[in-house]
Amino acid sequence: MDDADRYRQQLDLVLEAAGFDLWENDLVDGRVTRRASKVFRELGYGDDSVASCIDDIFSLIHPEDAEGLRLALQAHIDGGAEQYRAEFRIRAKSGDWVWYANYGRIVDRDGAARRLLGVTFNVDAARRRELELARMNARLAEQNAELEELNATLRELAASDPLTGIANRRKLLAVGESEVQRALRMGHPLSLLIVDIDDFKEVNDTWGHLDGDCVIRAVAALCAGSVRASVDTAGRIGGEEFAIVLPEIGGRDAQALAERLRVAIKAQPVALAGGAVVCRTVSIGVASVGAACASFVGLLGWADAALYAAKSAGKDCVRVHAGTARHGQGEPAVPRSAG
């Protein structure tokens, strides 16, 4: 045995121990000068069919992987890639698809590529772990998205009035205080409406609380429909009383909006659960941020005083707090004694 034979034996032993199957192709005449027969025996093919499997290798490659393998091989032959690398699935005798990898390099290039030498080895376990990890990550991302959606729903429910679906008192106070401080800091206008259903006790006493809820929902819907989406905030303070926060709206415009809302509510028939149809009126108090009003609680007090004046004036009307007129808004003012 000469040195070359010993070297080949040693190389075969090292490759076998590492799980590699050495192959070699003659790129000039297309012959497979060394076959990766170990791979096909591993896949369950007998010695009698190994040669035909190797000669018709692409018939055993998964259809989704065949084109990528061809492109990787061609890129190396053309000189665009330093080495040939590809991962692909081969159909076993049992019909299962098993992942393998090819690493190769042209070892004889005399002007044109002549000889391609490489190894094939099984990467099925690693690829399946990767695929399982990818599936787990995809599922985790999906679950996180579902959880975020659920949390968003819970946050919305926590900020919404359960009867009407508009903002609840907690959200109104939080949004209102934030908007008041922003308006004061930037010197921008901000107004608040308080809307109260007139003689609401009469509705409950005459038709019952379920029909009273129908009226509350109808008024809440008109309040929400009268404001700018994602800008204004309409909410239920409690009972039959509502508030609307109006950033960037001064007293004059707020009073005009309140008047339109009052007319719309008065004209809106409400179908009750028992079949009756009623129309209700509202009284509305208007207040706007001024130098003497440094908090949302203070603005609520001003608007509530204006609402009290509207009730005292006979209901079904709009009144504006005196502080609003005094700070350059120019509307009819509510006397200070009213609030």
Walk me through what this model shows.
With 339 residues, the protein is α+β, with helices and mostly antiparallel strands. The chain has two domains: 3-122, Beta-Lactamase (2-Layer Sandwich); 164-338, Reverse transcriptase/Diguanylate cyclase domain (Alpha-Beta Plaits). Helix content is 49%, strand content 24%. The protein is built from eleven helices and 13 strands. It has helices at residues 3-18, 37-42, 47-55, 63-77, 124-159, 169-186, 200-207, 209-225, 251-267, 296-312, 322-329; strands spanning 21-26, 32-34, 84-91, 97-110, 112-122, 190-197, 233-238, 241-247, 270-271, 277-278, 282-288, 318-321, 333-334. Strands 7-8-6-11-12-13 form a six-stranded mixed β-sheet, sandwiched between helices. The protein has a five-stranded antiparallel β-sheet with strand order 2-1-5-4-3, sandwiched between helices. A two-stranded antiparallel ribbon has the order 9-10. Strand 12 (318-321), helix 11 (322-329) and strand 13 (333-334) form a beta-alpha-beta unit.
Task: Outline the fold blueprint.
Blueprint: H1 3-18, E1 21-26, E2 32-34, H2 37-42, H3 47-55, H4 63-77, E3 84-91, E4 97-110, E5 112-122, H5 124-159, H6 169-186, E6 190-197, H7 200-207, H8 209-225, E7 233-238, E8 241-247, H9 251-267, E9 270-271, E10 277-278, E11 282-288, H10 296-312, E12 318-321, H11 322-329, E13 333-334
Parallel strand pairs: 11-12, 12-13
Antiparallel strand pairs: 1-2, 1-5, 3-4, 4-5, 6-8, 6-11, 7-8, 9-10
List keywords for this structure.
alpha+beta; 339 residues; disordered C terminus; 6-stranded mixed beta sheet; Alpha-Beta Plaits; 11 helices
